[in-house]
Amino acid sequence: MNIVVQKYGGTSVGSVERIQNVAKRIIEKKKNNHQIVVVVSAMGKTTDDLVKLAYAINPSPSKREMDRLLSTGEQISISLLSMALQSMGHDAISFTGPQIGIRTSGLHTKSRIEGIDTTKILDSLNEDKIVIIAGFQGVNDNDDVTTLGRGGSDTSAVALACVLDAPCEIYTDVEGIYGVDPRLYPAAKKLDSVSYEEMLEMASLGAGVMHPRAIELGSKYDTNIWVASSEFDVPGTIIKKGEKGMEGQSITGVAIDNDQIMITIRDIPFDMNITSHFFYQFANKSINIDMISQSAPIDGLINISFTAPSSDLNDANKILSAFQEKHPSIGVLINESISKLSVVGIGMRSQSGVAAKFFQLLADNDIQMLMITTSEIRISCIIKSKDKDIAVSATAEAFEL
Ligand code: ADP
Ligand code: ASP
Ligand code: MG
């Protein structure tokens, strides 16, 4: 079978005309002898609007109910796309995540895909139908609908491609993956290809063009992922296994994440049991902590700073209050006006001087770094949010992205 999985994002299915345009593209592909599985996101800003609605009703909505609500966005777009295809004379059938057996584990609003039953998909393809599947959602062991985290339709699509042993085409509102978000730096250059490793770092560090879990899955199953425009027929970017040559650019991309908070705790007793217990509370809530720095102990006390996603602020506040109740002498400071700026590239493995160049350009632009962390292929630093625009442009320019 010549199966291909295509995914269309929110903007790409944001209006009747756009849905019709997507339907035409799917039909073209089918005419080229493909069996097509399509994953779609909710139309336009539907998910954002549903989130606002939830918070207008309840400032602390239950995560189970949140999943129930947010999963409805994709249900609208799958049925409309299916109707569009049918009106153009093609047989199509839509399914929700639970209906198609996308089984998930983990907490509500940030579940992970455990497995997919392909029976219904293959049966429908064999009946010559175009199969349309709601992205972003699945079902857990309690038979509750779950969601995969914002932007999670990419992960639904790649997971389906993995189990169907098919290539995955992600169609979106830009023409591919760029060295930096082209909306922030219009001179950004499009990449022909990017390695899973680099894309995973970029996606995890704020390049919202792809959901990080999608890249993790693609890499695990060695599934090629194409990212291209849903509107224009121009070559996009392929995400695949790969190393760059020794003489390649040191930096492949810059990412900026404006949805992070920085938490600093002062005067914690210097005891590893206390520190590990504290971070366990965050792990239990599946809060992804990225940067951690700890001061040297003075008089048996340490300070710890770390970053967490802003969307976890409510849970973080509860954990911090409980910690403060147990250790009344500690001080807690939450800084919400920060951004995490990162440079990523496997070229860093073989080229020195990247950190020096990066820090110098920040210094030249009077940008302070509040925290730094590095891995073999990335350098991230926390800066004040007010500096983010100039920091992105200066970095992109300096590294010719
Ligand atoms: P979709 O609704 O199709 O999933 P998203 O909004 O999730 O689309 O992702 C596409 C957006 O990602 C683009 O509009 C762009 O602003 C942003 N983006 C961030 N970083 C990059 C990058 N490095 N290359 C391309 N686009 C990026
Ligand atoms: N509709 C969901 C969101 O806006 C999932 C997605 O678009 O990938 O986050
Ligand atoms: Mg997206």
UniProtKB/TrEMBL annotation:
<keyword id="KW-0457">Lysine biosynthesis</keyword>
<keyword id="KW-0547">Nucleotide-binding</keyword>
<keyword id="KW-0028">Amino-acid biosynthesis</keyword>
<keyword id="KW-0220">Diaminopimelate biosynthesis</keyword>
<feature type="binding site">
    <location>
        <position position="74"/>
    </location>
    <ligand>
        <name>substrate</name>
    </ligand>
</feature>
<dbReference type="InterPro" id="IPR002912">
    <property type="entry name" value="ACT_dom"/>
</dbReference>
<comment type="similarity">
    <text>Belongs to the aspartokinase family.</text>
</comment>
<feature type="domain" description="ACT">
    <location>
        <begin position="343"/>
        <end position="401"/>
    </location>
</feature>
<dbReference type="GO" id="GO:0005524">
    <property type="term" value="F:ATP binding"/>
</dbReference>
<dbReference type="InterPro" id="IPR005260">
    <property type="entry name" value="Asp_kin_monofn"/>
</dbReference>
<dbReference type="InterPro" id="IPR001341">
    <property type="entry name" value="Asp_kinase"/>
</dbReference>
<dbReference type="GO" id="GO:0009088">
    <property type="term" value="P:threonine biosynthetic process"/>
</dbReference>
<comment type="pathway">
    <text>Amino-acid biosynthesis; L-threonine biosynthesis; L-threonine from L-aspartate: step 1/5.</text>
</comment>
<dbReference type="GO" id="GO:0019877">
    <property type="term" value="P:diaminopimelate biosynthetic process"/>
</dbReference>
<comment type="function">
    <text>Catalyzes the phosphorylation of the beta-carboxyl group of aspartic acid with ATP to yield 4-phospho-L-aspartate, which is involved in the branched biosynthetic pathway leading to the biosynthesis of amino acids threonine, isoleucine and methionine.</text>
</comment>
<comment type="pathway">
    <text>Amino-acid biosynthesis; L-lysine biosynthesis via DAP pathway; (S)-tetrahydrodipicolinate from L-aspartate: step 1/4.</text>
</comment>
<dbReference type="GO" id="GO:0009090">
    <property type="term" value="P:homoserine biosynthetic process"/>
</dbReference>
<dbReference type="InterPro" id="IPR001048">
    <property type="entry name" value="Asp/Glu/Uridylate_kinase"/>
</dbReference>
<feature type="binding site">
    <location>
        <position position="183"/>
    </location>
    <ligand>
        <name>ATP</name>
    </ligand>
</feature>
<feature type="binding site">
    <location>
        <begin position="172"/>
        <end position="173"/>
    </location>
    <ligand>
        <name>ATP</name>
    </ligand>
</feature>
<dbReference type="Pfam" id="PF00696">
    <property type="entry name" value="AA_kinase"/>
</dbReference>
<dbReference type="Pfam" id="PF22468">
    <property type="entry name" value="ACT_9"/>
</dbReference>
<feature type="binding site">
    <location>
        <position position="47"/>
    </location>
    <ligand>
        <name>substrate</name>
    </ligand>
</feature>
<keyword id="KW-0808">Transferase</keyword>
<dbReference type="GO" id="GO:0005829">
    <property type="term" value="C:cytosol"/>
</dbReference>
<protein>
    <recommendedName>
        <fullName>Aspartokinase</fullName>
        <ecNumber>2.7.2.4</ecNumber>
    </recommendedName>
</protein>
<dbReference type="GO" id="GO:0009089">
    <property type="term" value="P:lysine biosynthetic process via diaminopimelate"/>
</dbReference>
<dbReference type="GO" id="GO:0004072">
    <property type="term" value="F:aspartate kinase activity"/>
</dbReference>
<dbReference type="InterPro" id="IPR018042">
    <property type="entry name" value="Aspartate_kinase_CS"/>
</dbReference>
<keyword id="KW-0418">Kinase</keyword>
<feature type="binding site">
    <location>
        <position position="178"/>
    </location>
    <ligand>
        <name>ATP</name>
    </ligand>
</feature>
<feature type="binding site">
    <location>
        <begin position="7"/>
        <end position="10"/>
    </location>
    <ligand>
        <name>ATP</name>
    </ligand>
</feature>
<keyword id="KW-0067">ATP-binding</keyword>
<dbReference type="InterPro" id="IPR045865">
    <property type="entry name" value="ACT-like_dom_sf"/>
</dbReference>
<dbReference type="InterPro" id="IPR036393">
    <property type="entry name" value="AceGlu_kinase-like_sf"/>
</dbReference>
<dbReference type="InterPro" id="IPR054352">
    <property type="entry name" value="ACT_Aspartokinase"/>
</dbReference>
<dbReference type="InterPro" id="IPR041740">
    <property type="entry name" value="AKii-LysC-BS"/>
</dbReference>
